[in-house]
Amino acid sequence: MRTTLGVLFLALQVTLVLASRRGEERYFCWAPHTAQVRFSAEVEVGDRSLTPAEVQRRYRLHSAGWEAHSAANLIDTIERYESTLGRGDRARVRLSYRVNGHEERRWNWP
User: Fold this and answer.
1) How much is the pTM?
2) pLDDT tens sequence across 45-89
3) Which residues span the domain enclosing 76?
4) Does 27 reside within a domain?
5) Would you give the distance in Å from CA 59 to the centre of its chain?
6) Is the peptide bond before 110 cis (omega within 30 degrees of 0)?
7) Going by C-beta distance under 8 Å and a sequence separation of 6 or more, which residues neighbour residue 60?
């Protein structure tokens, strides 16, 4: 029984690692962090820009910096907040990021 559970656990991990290599998200597996993301987020609520401290309190992320996970993790964090707790704020978010030093990409909410 233990051997069967161990084999199933390892098979699940291999499956999740292989799945993560095909997409951006890497939440539930032991896939290596092969992406280094430099990012900057600008957030406006109403007609006011949030300070870096306010952005950090809002998303539990710095407004600019370096992330060892994929850019999709940053985007998911912001989307989750804005579609739940922040949905009434009508915030506008501009996220600029570079993955592994490549060209800059931009993502906007909404």
Assistant:
1) 0.73
2) 999 999 999 999 999 999 999 988 788 889 999 999 999 999 999
3) 35-110
4) no
5) 11
6) yes
7) 77
